[in-house]
Amino acid sequence: MAAVLSIAILVVAADQITKSLAVADLATHDVHVIGPFSFRLAYNTGVAFSLGTSLTGPIIIVAVALVLAIAWMARGVPTMPAATACGLVLGGAIGNLIDRIRLGAVVDFIHFHWGHAYFPAFNVADSAITVGAACLLLDALLESNRTRTKA
């Protein structure tokens, strides 16, 4: 559990620091980095991709429940990869929850586009949740395969 909490704390710190920098530096202009990659300040009042924008209260309640569920699940993770993945998901969920409570919206600032196709803006917390969830799925698939191989 110590590894999960350590990783979650690092993710929350990185997320909140980068969001603070984005709010301070991107309020008046976007920053083009390279190719289809830029920094653009956006506030997401909805769930994923700004869906359900009038549901701030229920979103916070669900987010708190999810953070508690992830923390509960992380108590017994058997491997370091699973602990890392849980820490990423937990830290990302807490980072976005902090924004929802403080601002009523999540600060997003990483932006990709290809021609006229735009991917919704996201942040460090979103990235941590995505990578952590993918790693948990991969770990579950590998564990299922290991279990079948032993039988």
Keywords:
151 residues, alpha+beta, four-stranded antiparallel beta sheet, 4 helices, 18% strand, globular
Structure in words:
There is one protein chain. Strands 1-2-3-4 form a 4-stranded antiparallel beta sheet. A hairpin with a 2-residue loop joins strand 3 and strand 4. It has one domain (2-21, 42-150). With 151 residues, it is of the alpha+beta class. The protein contains 4 helices and 4 strands; from the N terminus they run αββααββα. The chain has helices at residues 2-25, 56-74, 80-103, 124-150; strands spanning 31-34, 37-44, 106-114, 117-122.
Mean pLDDT: 88
Termini gap:
30 Å
- Total domain units: 1
Shape: globular
Sketch the topology as an H/E string, one letter per element.
HEEHHEEH
Uncertain residue ranges: none
Rg on CA atoms, Å: 17 Å
Determine the number of helices (DSSP H or I, runs of at least 4 residues). 4
Helical fraction: 55-70%
Task: Give the helices and strands, then pairings.
Layout: H1 2-25, E1 31-34, E2 37-44, H2 56-74, H3 80-103, E3 106-114, E4 117-122, H4 124-150
Antiparallel strand pairs: 1-2, 2-3, 3-4
Helix pairs in contact: 1-3, 2-3, 3-4
Brief write-up:
The chain has 151 residues and is an alpha+beta fold. It is 62% helix and 18% strand.
